[in-house]
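Form 12-C: Joint structure prediction
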Amino acid sequence: MSMNDLIATIKKVLEEVDVVLGWTRSPAAGVAVPARFHTPDEADGAIFDSTCTHNLAVHLPRLKNSKVGIVAKGCDARSIVQLIVEGEVSRDRIRVIGVPCPGVIDVKRAWRCFGFGKKIEDAGGRVHMEGRSMPREEILLHKCHQCQDQEPVIMDLAAGDVKSVTPPPPPDKTGIRERFAAMSIAERREFWREQFSRCIRCYACREACPLCFCRDACSMQTREPHWTGGQVNAIESEMAQQVRTSHLAGRCTGCEECERACPVGIPLMLLLEEQNRIVEELFAYRAGMSLEDKTPLLTYDVNRDGGWR
Amino acid sequence: MPKTEVKIIGFLCNWCSYAGADMAGTARMKQPASLRVVRLPCTGRVNPLLVLKAFREGADGVLVSGCHPGDCHYNEGNYYARRRMEVLERMLPALGIDPARFHYTWVSASEGAKWADVVNEFTRRVKQVI
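Section 2 - Result
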């Protein structure tokens, strides 16, 4: 896919929608940032590369009154489908532009290696930063290592050939998943206590999550019901995250936005990945795969349920 | 060294398990004093967060019990509960909570003896892992 394909597709979609959600390059940070394109002139700044990590579906519930075009990677498309299934977004108000995604990189990790604000460019399977470079697959987000959905499940137009994407690279070697899996239950208790002692309760995890759309009524913050207090300590923060995790049971598409947005780097996906695995195991269900789906915890099946033990 | 006294929170449905527990009481069946009962209209009311919050507030064990599937007073409440409790039970190890401290089961209003067994067995199990 060339950028011209993308820009031309956005311009075409702009003829029938009010705004297109996409990415542009931030001159200051050197990486992609989300952008809203209202006019064809604005659309000339559109880009798509492996720094386009954001899941733009998060903006859809906030744009209920306009017709919206959205540039979507395979994983973002699953979030869009889930939003439609839950009635938060209406199918006929949106136009989805699918892009062939080579996997997106962990920008924070790249900045840690190369310095904040360095311009990051992606060419020939390598990520380049001011003369230095490293193979893209060494710095991909974890979700990209196990990606099964490179072709968007919902799509009106494609910018480029979404089928001709590279296969998912081998699993990453950061090791936190292996370490967590090997821990005893008591060690995990300590692990979470330590992790959540760093939580500053900024709710970035919730704001970045496309499916946390309750906004003012979020149970992580409400006084009634009072599931958790607002104090910034490990116990309250852990409970707050348990609230969020359980509310995403059978709904989370695994887009990893919560973990990416977390400013103190709490590995929230350890909980959500485990929950998604359990939901798939019990109900043979992955969220956001089809518009006909029903969220498994909002239904039941008399004939199939209960054989679990 | 097993703890001698444990505190178990029981979330019981009004129509079956609560009546079953009542029956076990009136029949003077021997059961440990470890259980604190919260009476709910239906297990469909049991938000998994109630269980997690009970653990956070210091419960040693949490027991959820309702009508047998198919016998719900509201026809389908325990079908929903069954899915939620199953996901919750399997999530507990990842959250750092021993799944042996949680149990969900079905006890009808006529099963006083079964109720006593459930409480005895679960208390024994919780004492072992606490």
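Section 3 - Comments
Chain A touches chain B at residues 185-186, 188-193, 219, 227, 235, 238-239, 242-243, 245-246, 249-250, 270-271, 274-275, 278-279, 281-283, 296-297, 300, 302, 305-306, 308 (CB under 8 Å). Strands of chain A lie at 19-25, 32-37, 68-72, 94-98, 120-123, 126-129, 132-135, 157-158.
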